[in-house]
Amino acid sequence: MNTAHKYDDQVIIPTIAGQLELLSGTDLNKELAEHVFHEAPDIDLSIYDIFIVCLSGGKDSIAAYLRLLEAGVGVVSENGK
User: Fold this and answer.
1) What sign results for the dihedral spanned by CA atoms 54, 57, 60, 64?
2) Domain chopping of the chain, boundaries
3) pLDDT more than 70, % of the chain
4) For the segment 30-50, what is each residue's pLDDT rounded down to a tens digit?
5) What angle do CA 13, 64, 12 make, to 5 degrees?
6) CB–CB of 50/23 below 8 Å?
7) How far apart are CA 66 and CA 19, in angstroms?
8) What angle do CA 49, 55, 58 make, to 5 degrees?
9) Per its UniProt entry, which superkingdom is the organism in (predicted)?
10) DSSP state of 34
11) CB hemisphere CA count around 69 (13 angstroms)
12) Cα separation of 69 and 64, whole Å?
């Protein structure tokens, strides 16, 4: 692990988590499963009519897109097909 990632994992992320915990009143320091770095609750997608997804081609945007597909969001291209 390079130094920047180690600093992020040990300093930046815990600091932000602590600040969010103060604002939201929730415990963000719960134990996560092995190899899980972030865990967020699923949101109710049924309240949305349209999903617009912009892809950069990077791992994060592709992962977000695939998660929406797994959740059952349909695909329509920009030309309506």
Assistant:
1) positive
2) 1-38, 42-81
3) 72
4) 666 677 666 677 788 889 988
5) 10
6) no
7) 30
8) 140
9) Bacteria
10) T
11) 9
12) 9
77 alpha carbon, distance to own chain's centre: 24
Taking the model in full, what pTM does it have? 0.47
Structure token pair of residue 11: 């300093």
Side chain identity at residue 67, one-letter code: R
User: Do residues 81 and 75 touch, judged by C-beta distance below 8 A?
Assistant: no
Q: Do you know the residue count of the chain? A: 81
- Full 3-state SS string of the chain: CCHHHHHHHHHHHHHHHHHHHHHHCCCCCCCCCCCCCCCCCCCCHHHCCCCCCCCCCCHHHHHHHHHHHHCCCCCCCCCCC
What is the reported pLDDT for 37? 63
Structure tokens of 64? 């977000």
Q: Are 12 and 20 in contact (CB under 8 A)?
A: no
Provide the 3-class DSSP secondary structure of residue 6.
helix
